[in-house]
Amino acid sequence: MDAFCSDCKRNTEVVFDHSAGDTVCSECGLVLEAHSIDETSEWRTFANESGDNDPNRVGGPSNPLLTDGGLSTVISKPNGASGDFLSSSLGRWQNRGSNPDRTLMQPFKTIATMSDRLGLVATIKDRANEIYKKVEDQKSIRGRNQDAILAACLYIACRQEDKPRTVKEICSVANGATKKEIGRAKEYIVKQMESDPDPSVPFSVNPVHAVDFLRRFCSHLGMTNQAVKAAQEAVQKSEELDIRRSPISVAAAVIYMITQLSAEKKLLRGLRSNKHLFFSVTSSIYCCCYSLYGVIIHSSNHWCADISMATGVAEGTIRNSYKDLYPYAVRLIPTWYAKEELRNLCSP
Q1: CA-to-CA distance for 307 and 153, rounded, in angstroms?
Q2: DSSP string covering 33-68
Q3: Which tens digit of pLDDT belongs to each residue from 1-44?
């Protein structure tokens, strides 16, 4: 880390003394800044070694979406029925007080839980919180399905951050909200945000492309790097064609086409075993149980079933999309991956 030293008259390397909070020039020893305050969170905890007393002295990071930055003091409930009367009374009076962020705390926790279950990064979670706060400020979601609204905010945030998730994936962590409810909530939120009187912050939802889902689907299926690269090239070429299918269906159909030309002829890591094989396709989303005896011999039907399980697309939809892509197989499949083997593609 470099900083300007007034004695050296130039930028020099500085050393930070954590014990004293001083920033010292490494060349002349001048203290450039004294008693600095570390504003980061203290993540280390030794609560398991000290009984019920958690020695953490700070809370989580500040949240700019909350009025007080999320740094207010909350009086917890006493332990057990015979808790301290004073702390119980203070907590009750605090709940009666005016807290403008009361309607935001629980939705933010729900969005964080859904994000963790889907393995999403913090930027997507923060974007979903921001979208929900803007909709909440308009006071227009009262009486609507709260779970569907929160799931729709997360779905929109994924698309805005170019990390889209399918509605089925969002629905799997949406606390009972259906795909139809999430879809309606999404359309409602987009309509409300587009009618926002503040034109300085334009609201848009990025379009979804098949390539956005492809690598993740291929990873779930345990495909080789060469097969993934070939599938990506095929999906990019498919955008030049007039294929009137959803991006997810196109991605699944391309994977179905590539796996037929793969040298390994198998999918899903560890699928070849004897009995009661459990495997997870998506992080805690799809969990399926096979009762298998003997060795599985894959056919095109097995491949289609595996791809359907990993992508969430119905087998019939995959076959219909494959039927639309089949006439363009020569244009789609890279020549370096399969040239003579194209005749091995099964007829739709």
Answers
A1: 28
A2: E-S----S------GGGSTT-----S-S---TTSTT
A3: 788 888 888 888 888 887 788 889 988 888 888 888 776 655 55
